[in-house]
DNA sequence: CTCTCCCGCCACCCG
DNA sequence: CGGGTGGCGGGAGAG
């Protein structure tokens, strides 16, 4: 039967026979985590996706099915990438009703219900018949059922930044039903979300949705805790150990600990809207604790890359129970579960750290880094590296350059242990490197948003602020909200300083108070930032064209660097299983379990707290890893403190050197930043993960970069695409115009903001330039940098086709914090809806009939919002 | 083969 | 005690 169904594709897809499909699939499929859309193939073959799976396994009974053309629809959903799809997604996100419908259609159908599914299949059959197999392929594969995908769907139902006023309740049952999964799965998701305070348990089957408002705060706290725990050291130790394995036995690593105390802090919900009723009870949910710890590892890591084995070891050791390697496997499983959720949140992405021995699965933090609010950090970094530049906003860029130089050139800094070098040498190719990530760097706008948001929050404090904050009716237009990613070219780094970089910023920025930037202080004006945000809002609200310009910050961020990643950790490879024993005995071991949570946490958000960490991190926040102290990395044994760190970084450095440039951000500054809205293309972003290739990175001078911002679900569709062309020397420093489009909102308005008058015509087109970029949903920021404050310029003409409105931002000087930038794939959000694609819903769901609705409704989008 | 991680049994624990 | 939770690990899909 199956066969029958499939045939369509033949008809439809001109392209190739089934084989192709298969191939494609294969290609597409990346790791599981990633989103894969089969859709691409699809255009024609509607079928595939969902129905399939079952089909293969079960038979369809086409007869049964009514015919439902649905498939097509589904397909689309599945494929997020198309502009249309994006819109759809966005819209759906915005409006609950729509969401429901969508879900019902797409999401659910697939799965288990063979019956239903079949229907689809039938249609398919009609179409073509032959390619049954294909269908099978499409069948919900494991990927489709993955927790990551499920999580995306889950997240799609709720606004990232809900109005404070609206409290959204999540009914586990409803969600499970609507998503077509077992409740057990929902627990996994919710637990992780809870660990980040995105949700909190309200009652029995009820969770309250908080959204990301407090995420920065949470991350900040986790970072602090991580520091306290000395996770960095632990990681370093383990990594070192790995390196040295042969050489050294490990010494002791100390960990210090007081674990408990710290841990207790974990999970505190700072602002739980709901009383965290249950919070602590139970065993504490190791998943929650694990999730927090896992996040802490990233936050503390200079490279922002954490290998699973290291994470698992640390967790094992900490757990009070005796660490037994036997648990290693289990821990790793859990880490994958957590990682899938975090990936869906666009906080991390999967990468591989390649080491001599092989590659190790790892994840890279792509979420906000600066939530700490310390601008200082940035400053510090730059200062440390380049004191003189420090002030300059672009200093960061320079830093990159330097680093780059360092890599290429001498790494004196890196004295790194010889052994490390040896290793490196041994593998000329790329000893340690992050494989996947190479694609360009991209920043996540989200981080910026986070920054803003945070600031705002600080001002108003927590939730309250939300209400205050002007939020576009549509749920979430928070400026802050999710942003796309910026991608940067590595290359730029090389030439970082080239004038172009600042170009944009120059003009405009200056106008704004750049100084802040110069100082490196972001804080500068939280208030201002906030105001800025607000200002933005109106536009958003209008439903019309909105202009949101994260600009400065983005640029800044972007500048910041990404490099870090490369280093990767390295480290141990021990095996998964066996590893444990070897592991050190970390003392840490705080009892993880307790999540004491105390709710109250110290939130000091108010104050920037800047100080607290600032120094320590030095490098931390930024990925920059300047090896300050070459220290002996070699000694690994003493991971402990500082020394260790140094060592690690060093490694990184080495690595980086090898790495494709991609990683680095570089400051290429692109003069132009143009933002164009595109619905079409880029948006698709597809999964984040997409392999970025180096291509991007290597871009040529001429490339433009664009930044595309998609609106997360929360936002009604707000997509922005910025393109900056980096022009090499030739191009003037013009800042490109920016366009914003808000598809979600009724019309799609596009805005262009041009910093300076200069606009590149191209810019609009730009996007296409980089394939990758395009692909990414997020925005890519080119090198930008510049101090960037405001990007937007009133003057800038708009040029896009659609109605555009330009808004000038007030100048709010936005502080920019460079560091955070990273590429992210975050597309997840965007995709979500589609993603569903077939989620295959679970097989049997308990009886749930698919009810979808309720949950969504709850979502309420803030007032007007959505729909 | 290894990497991922889905799935769901079944222990907890709360009400 | 029943039901909500969620630890845990077998086992299988994907690569």
- What is the number of helices? 37
| Low-confidence residue ranges | 1-137, 246-265, 269-281, 374-867
Main sheet specs: 4 strands, antiparallel
Q: What topology, given as strand order, has the largest sheet?
A: 4-6-5-7
Q: Give the overall shape.
A: globular
The secondary-structure class comes to mainly alpha
Mean pLDDT: 44
What gap, in angstroms, lies between the N and C termini? 41 Å
Radius of gyration: 25 Å
Strand fraction band?
Answer: 5-15%
DSSP, total strands: 11
Helix content: 40-55%
Which helices and strands appear, and what pairs or packs with what?
Layout: H1 2-6, H2 8-12, H3 18-28, H4 49-57, H5 70-78, H6 83-94, H7 96-108, H8 114-127, H9 132-138, H10 142-145, H11 147-156, E1 168-171, H12 172-179, H13 183-195, E2 199-203, E3 206-209, H14 215-229, H15 231-244, H16 259-265, H17 286-300, E4 305-307, H18 308-318, H19 326-344, E5 348-354, E6 359-365, H20 375-385, H21 395-408, H22 418-426, E7 433-434, H23 445-460, H24 462-468, H25 490-494, H26 500-511, H27 514-519, H28 526-542, H29 551-560, H30 579-582, H31 610-617, H32 642-658, E8 674-675, H33 694-697, E9 704-709, E10 719-725, E11 739-741, H34 761-765, H35 771-775, H36 827-835, H37 854-859
Antiparallel strand pairs: 1-3, 2-3, 4-6, 5-6, 5-7, 8-10, 9-10, 10-11
The protein binds a DNA duplex (15 and 15 nucleotides) through residues 26, 29-33, 141-143, 145-147, 172, 182-185, 187-188, 191, 204-205, 278, 281-283, 285-287, 327, 329-330, 332-334, 336-337, 340, 361, 576, 842-843.
């Amino acid at each position: 039967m199956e066969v029958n169904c499939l045939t369509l594709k033949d008809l439809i897809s001109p392209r190739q026979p089934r084989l192709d499909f298969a191939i494609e699939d294969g290609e597409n499929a990346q790791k599981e985590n990633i989103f894969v859309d089969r859709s691409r193939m699809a255009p024609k073959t509607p079928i595939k996706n969902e129905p399939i799976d079952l089909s293969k396994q079960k038979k369809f009974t086409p007869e049964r099915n009514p015919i439902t053309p649905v498939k097509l629809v589904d397909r689309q959903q599945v494929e997020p990438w198309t502009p249309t799809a994006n819109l759809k997604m966005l819209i759906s996100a915005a409006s609950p009703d729509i969401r429901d419908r969508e879900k019902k259609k797409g999401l659910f159908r697939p799965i288990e219900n063979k019956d239903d599914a079949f229907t689809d299949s039938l249609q398919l059959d009609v179409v073509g018949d032959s390619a049954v197999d294909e269908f099978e392929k499409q069948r919900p594969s494991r990927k489709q059922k993955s927790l990551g995908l499920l999580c995306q769907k889950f997240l799609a139902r709720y606004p990232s930044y809900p109005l404070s006023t609206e409290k959204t309740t999540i009914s586990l049952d409803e969600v499970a039903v609507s998503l077509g999964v077992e409740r057990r799965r929902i627990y996994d998701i919710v637990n992780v979300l809870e660990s980040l305070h995105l949700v909190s348990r309200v009652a029995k089957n009820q969770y309250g949705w908080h959204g990301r408002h407090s995420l920065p705060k949470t991350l900040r706290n986790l970072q602090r805790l991580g520091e306290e725990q000395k996770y960095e050291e632990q990681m370093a130790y383990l990594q070192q150990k790995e390196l040295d394995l042969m050489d050294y036995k490990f010494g002791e690593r100390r960990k210090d600990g007081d674990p408990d105390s710290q841990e207790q802090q974990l999970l505190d919900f700072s602002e739980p809207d709901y009383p965290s009723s249950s919070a602590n009870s139970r065993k504490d949910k190791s998943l929650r604790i694990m999730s927090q710890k896992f996040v802490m590892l990233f936050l503390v890591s200079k490279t922002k890359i954490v290998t699973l084995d290291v994470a698992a070891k640390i967790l094992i050791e900490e757990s009070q129970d005796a660490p037994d390697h036997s648990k290693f496997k289990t821990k790793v499983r859990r880490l994958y579960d957590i990682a899938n959720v975090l990936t869906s949140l666009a906080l991390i992405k999967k990468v591989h750290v390649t080491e001599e021995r092989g590659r190790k699965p790892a994840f890279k933090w792509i979420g906000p880094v600066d939530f700490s609010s310390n601008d200082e950090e940035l400053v510090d970094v730059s200062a440390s590296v380049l004191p003189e530049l420090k002030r300059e906003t672009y200093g960061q860029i320079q830093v990159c350059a330097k680093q780059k130089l360092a890599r290429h050139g001498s790494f004196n800094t890196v004295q790194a242990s010889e052994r490390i070098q040896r290793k490196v040498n041994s593998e000329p190719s790329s000893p340690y490197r992050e494989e996947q990530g190479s694609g360009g760097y991209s920043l996540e706008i989200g981080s910026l948003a986070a920054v803003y948001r945070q600031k705002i929050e600080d001002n108003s404090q927590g939730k309250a602020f939300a209400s205050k904050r002007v939020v576009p009716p549509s749920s979430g237009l928070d400026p802050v909200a999710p942003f796309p990613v910026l991608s940067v070219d590595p290359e730029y780094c090389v030439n970082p300083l080239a004038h172009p970089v600042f170009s944009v910023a120059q003009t405009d920025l200056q106008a704004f108070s750049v100084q802040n930037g110069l100082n490196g202080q972001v804080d500068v004006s939280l208030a201002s930032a906030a105001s800025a945000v607000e200002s933005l809002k109106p536009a958003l609200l209008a439903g019309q064209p909105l202009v949101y310009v994260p600009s400065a910050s983005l640029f800044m961020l972007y500048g910041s660097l990404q490099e870090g990643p490369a280093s990767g950790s390295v480290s141990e490879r021990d095996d998964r299983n066996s590893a444990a024993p070897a592991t050190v005995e970390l003392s840490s071991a705080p009892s993880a379990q307790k999540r004491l949570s105390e709710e109250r946490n110290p939130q000091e958000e108010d104050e920037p707290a800047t100080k607290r960490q600032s120094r320590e991190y030095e490098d931390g926040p930024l990925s920059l890893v300047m090896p300050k102290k070459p220290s002996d990395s070699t000694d690994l044994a003493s991971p402990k403190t500082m020394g260790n760190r140094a060592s690690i970084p060093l490694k990184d450095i080495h690595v980086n050197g090898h790495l494709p440039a991609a990683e680095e951000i570089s400051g290429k500054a692109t003069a132009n930043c143009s933002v164009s809205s595109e619905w079409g293309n880029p948006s698709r972003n597809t999964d984040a993960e997409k392999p970025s290739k180096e291509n991007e990175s290597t871009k040529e001078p001429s490339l433009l970069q664009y930044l595309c911002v998609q609106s997360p679900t929360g936002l009604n569709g707000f997509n922005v695409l910025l393109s900056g062309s980096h022009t090499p020397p030739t191009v003037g420093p013009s800042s490109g115009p920016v366009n914003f489009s808000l598809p979600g909102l009724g019309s799609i308005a596009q805005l262009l903001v041009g910093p300076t008058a200069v606009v590149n015509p191209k810019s609009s087109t730009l996007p296409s330039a980089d394939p990758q970029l395009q692909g990414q949903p997020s925005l890519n920021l080119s090198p930008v940098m510049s101090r960037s404050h405001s990007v937007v310029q009133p003057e800038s003409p708009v040029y896009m086709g659609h109605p555009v409105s330009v808004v000038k931002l007030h100048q709010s000087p936005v502080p920019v914090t460079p560091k955070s930038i990273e590429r992210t794939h975050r597309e997840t959000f965007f995709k979500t809806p589609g993603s569903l694609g077939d989620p295959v819903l679970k097989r049997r769901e308990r009886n749930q009939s698919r009810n979808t609705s309720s949950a969504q409704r709850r979502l309420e989008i803030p007032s007007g919002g959505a729909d």
